[in-house]
Design a protein that fits this description.
0% strand, 65% helix, TPR-like_helical_dom_sf, Serine Threonine Protein Phosphatase 5, Tetratricopeptide repeat, Cell division coordinator CpoB, CpoB, mainly alpha
């Protein structure tokens, strides 16, 4: 009995650290399980398609270690947690690298689109000066000679817009629009030019400003005034790229550039049309863009 009395405190002292260790292991295991669940949620958010090229398989716990021999310290749970934490860190590094790679690609696409727009604006600026070559091209350091550009074909000087018959100014923007659009319906293109020019000047806050600018471009295009049409169409796209008239304006701009004997620029505009709107184009717009590419002999 005395021996049992002496051994009992010793057993209690020995069991206490083991119980505390088991409690720590359970608490850490819960935290690791939570981290794994959050990581899987991040994977599903970043890669919703779940394609095998991008989506890492969900974390699976390593194979269970053999049961420890009775009488030896229970280190297998700690080893398991260490392995799982290492797997979490590896997958987090992989996700971070993939996100950074995607961000880099997006920046490259944005820079390419900005360069395309700047190039179109630069060439249209040359049109506005009557074919004169500007001192420097966009992106060229000051003092560097501009790259030689093809001479623009001589065009007849723009005619002054035909003055519509004198009539009292409309009381509202809607009434003014009806009067101006009547010229479009009758295909009176000189009258359309004058009416839309007046509407743009008289009703600057109207929601139909974009439509008026588009029909101003069409009035020039219908009379083969390609330089004026190009300026009007470009203004529509730059001022209202999300408007219903923006895709048609790019089509009109491409046609104007082809009329100016600039098929390469026309192809660039059609490339901008495809990258900006793509599947949003109507069947009629897609057919018109296809015909324009063939006419300008754009590369596939």
């Amino acid at each position: 009995m005395r021996c049992l009395a002496l051994l009992l405190p010793l057993l209690l002292v020995t069991a206490s650290p083991l119980a505390a260790q088991e409690t720590d292991v359970v608490r850490i295991d819960k935290r690791v399980g939570k981290l794994e669940s959050e990581l899987r949620a991040v994977q599903r958010k970043v890669f919703p398609g779940g394609e095998s090229r991008y989506f890492e398989p969900e974390i699976t716990a390593p194979a269970a270690a053999p049961a420890p021999v009775v009488g030896t310290p229970a280190t297998a749970p700690l080893t398991d947690l260490t392995d799982r934490l290492g797997e979490l860190e590896r997958q987090l590094r992989t996700l971070t690298g993939q996100v950074e790679a995607n961000q880099f690609k997006l920046r490259q696409l944005d820079e390419a689109m900005t360069k395309q727009r700047a190039d179109v604006e630069f060439r249209l600026g040359a049109l506005e000066t009557g074919g004169a070559r500007p001192a420097t091209a966009p992106g060229t350091a000051p003092g560097t000679p501009a790259a030689p550009a093809a001479e623009l074909p001589a065009e007849a000087p723009p005619r002054a817009p035909a003055k519509p018959a004198s009539s009292p100014k409309a009381a509202t923007a809607d009434a003014a629009w009806k009067q101006a659009y009547a010229n479009v319906t009758s295909k009176d293109w000189p009258g359309t030019e004058a009416a839309m020019t007046a509407f743009i000047a008289d009703w600057p806050k109207s929601t139909r400003q974009t439509q008026a600018q588009y029909w101003l471009g069409r009035s020039h295009a219908e009379r083969d005034q390609h330089a004026q049409a190009a300026r009007a169409f470009l203004k529509v796209y730059e001022s209202a790229p999300r408007s219903a008239q923006a895709p048609d304006s790019l089509l009109g701009l491409a046609d104007a550039m082809f009329g100016l004997k600039k098929p390469t620029d026309a192809c660039r505009v059609l490339g901008e049309l495809d990258s900006a709107y793509g599947e949003k184009l109507t069947p009629a717009q897609t057919a018109e863009a296809t015909a324009a590419r063939k006419r300008a002999k754009c590369p596939a």
